[in-house]
Design goal:
This protein has seven helices and two strands, in the order αααααββαα. The protein is mainly alpha-helical and 173 residues long. Strand 1 and strand 2 form a beta hairpin. 25% of the residues are buried.
Length: 173
């Protein structure tokens, strides 16, 4: 598997995980969904919103048109149904980005500024991969919160996704 193919698989896994997360989170009452359960971004909603915010922030950086984000807890979508729609669309955007970006750009370094204003340089491929591990981190937190709220935690293991992906990867092309 090439690194590009790995990124494509990770993009598919990212979307698959989001679907599994929403399959459980959609069953929460609005009160439970928005309750401060001690996560870094307080609630299930706050954590999912942060995932979308981070996606939008990095997608805009990679496009060379960074968004003016200074607070990583900034709410970008209050409506829960719209947040789900936007999260799944953002997951699809990662796959489109990987497919549309030629190797000389995908594996080249680019300059960006952090939310605090610091200047950094990073290969685009590392930024893309980081978004998938970032998602895993916060989905893990949400999974714990879902368990504490009485739900069965979704399974996000990459090998479980990969068994299906390896058999049906043509659908990701």
């Amino acid at each position: 598997m090439t690194y590009r193919e790995h990124l494509r698989a990770m993009a598919g896994w990212n979307r698959w995980c989001h679907q599994r997360l929403f399959a459980v989170a959609d069953g929460l009452s609005d009160e439970a969904y928005r309750r401060d359960v001690g996560l870094f971004f307080k609630s299930v909603h706050g954590s999912i919103n942060h995932l979308l915010l981070a996606d939008l922030m990095w997608q805009s950086r990679l496009a060379g048109a960074p968004l003016p984000i200074t607070d990583l807890a900034m709410e970008v979508e209050a409506d829960r149904a719209q947040l789900k729609t936007r999260m799944l669309a953002s997951a699809d955007e990662w796959l489109r980005y990987i497919d549309a970006t030629p190797d000389e750009l995908l594996f080249a370094e680019f300059d960006y500024r952090s939310t605090a204003g610091g200047a950094y340089r990073l290969p685009r491929s590392v930024a893309v991969h980081t978004m998938f591990t970032h998602g895993a981190h916060h989905r893990g937190q949400v999974s714990t919160a879902l368990s504490q709220l009485g739900c069965e935690a979704p399974v996000f293991d990459f090998p479980i996704f990969y068994f299906d992906y390896a058999q049906a990867k043509e659908s990701f092309r």
